């Protein structure tokens, strides 16, 4: 069995879409103005973004992007930090990992 898609409600579809394309290489499969976007990863999984007026995920909720190496995690961390995102340094937990608050109201984990 393969997971087909995950839907996130976000406050700003375009900002979340740009973030996911820029830092994680997702590609656009479809859009409906500023209210909906469907993004694909390298394996063909779909991440849909739907606009909501407010977003309230539980504190521990996040989506994760596994990287092929610790250096790739460090590279993404550097890019995010250089682009003005507030990110704590990667640390050793269940892998080499860090979290970032994404535009639109959800959290992303980057790990190797």
Automatic annotation (TrEMBL):
Residues forming the VOC domain are 2-112
- Note one Pfam family from the annotation: Glyoxalase
Q: Which InterPro entries does the annotation name?
A: Fosfomycin_Res_Enzymes, Glyas_Bleomycin-R_OHBP_Dase, Glyas_Fos-R_dOase_dom, VOC_core
**Coiled-coil intervals:** none
Matching PANTHER family? LYASE, PUTATIVE-RELATED-RELATED, SLL5075 PROTEIN
Protein name per its UniProtKB record: Glyoxalase
């Amino acid at each position: 069995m393969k997971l087909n898609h995950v839907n996130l409600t976000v406050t700003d579809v375009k900002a979340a879409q740009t973030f996911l394309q820029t830092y994680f290489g997702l590609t656009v499969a479809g859009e409906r103005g500023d209210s909906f976007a469907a993004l694909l990863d390298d394996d063909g999984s779909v991440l849909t973004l739907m606009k909501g007026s407010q977003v309230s995920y539980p504190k521990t909720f996040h989506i994760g992007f596994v990287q092929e190496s610790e250096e790739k995690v460090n590279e993404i961390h550097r890019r995010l930090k250089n682009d003005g995102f507030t990110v704590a340094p990667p640390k050793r937990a269940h892998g080499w990992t860090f979290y970032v608050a994404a535009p639109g109201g959800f959290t992303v984990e980057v790990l190797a």
